[in-house]
Amino acid sequence: MKELKRIGIFGGSFNPVHFGHLRAAEEVCEKLELDKVLFLPTFIPPHKDASLLVDFEHRYRMLKLTLEGHPKFTVSDFEFRLGGISYTVRTLAGLKKEHNSPEFFLLVGSDAFLEIDSWWHYRELFQLASVVIMTRPGTSHGDFGRFIFERVDQGYEWVDQRRQFEHPLWYPIIPVAITLLDISASKIRKLVALNRSIRFLVPEIVREYIIYYRLYGATIES
Questions:
Q1: pTM of model > 0.90
Q2: Closest by alpha carbon to 10, among 19, 113, 50, 22?
Q3: 122 vs 153: CA distance, rounded Å
Q4: In which element (H, E) is residue 222 found?
Q5: What pLDDT is attached to residue 159?
Q6: What is the pLDDT of residues 27-43, one digit of tens each?
Q7: Which of 5, 99, 104, 124 is buried most, with the most CB atoms less than 10 Å from its CB?
């Protein structure tokens, strides 16, 4: 069996998982030739109101049902097992110990990346994994260059040949343009609460799960 070397780390509340998450991960996985993408639902998010989250078990199970059968996607309960607030630095450091020296790629949306300086011990992230910025088509590296220079580290430089920012000591920062699907979990939750359809926004198995367990105020007609 081929040893896994290049592992994508895709964290988030996944409240619920939707096609925007899945398509982004699929495109990054393909473009960067990742061996695996690990979806990690947040246990206690540091930047979001935890009262808006359904229980971890539901979010984990929706992901597990969704990803079943995908050759490279899997879900992990690592942040649940880790306990406490789900700081990404803690998660990456823990995963490094749990896995046998893989090359990690942390998947981050472009909006989240431009707020990464608000994350706990955020500079340590770039010493643990390559950071993949999932960008909109047409976005240039210049849109992130100044932020990286001013807020991450001045040692980063754009290398056009490899289409990434490189540092003499830290891991690369890699912008990857993905298909923009204007879908958000908050919009899905609102639609469910209003008893409106969420078909084609989430996998059908997720829609059925939400209805069955009456998540987000769902009724039988949702």
A1: yes
A2: 22
A3: 11
A4: none
A5: 97
A6: 999 999 999 999 999 99
A7: 104
For the cut 50, the answer to whether the pLDDT of residue 100 exceeds it is yes
| pLDDT value of residue 1 | 40
Q: Any idea what the Cα angle at residue 28 is, between residues 85 and 78, rounded to 5°?
A: 25
H or E stretch covering 173: strand 173-177
Cα(211)–Cα(206) distance, rounded to whole angstroms?
Answer: 9
**Residue 221 confidence (pLDDT):** 59
For 150, the 3-state DSSP assignment is: helix
Burial 86-115 (b: 16+ CB within 10 A, else e): bbbbbbbbebeeeeeebebbbbbbbeebee
Q: Which residue do the tokens 């500079």 mark? A: 123
**pLDDT tens digits, residue range 181-195?**
999 999 999 999 999
Pairing type for strands 157-159 and 164-166 reads: antiparallel
The residues with which 158 forms a beta bridge, in sequence order, are 165
Helices (H), 49-173: 56-67, 78-82, 88-98, 110-113, 142-147
User: What tokens does 188 get?
Assistant: 């899905």
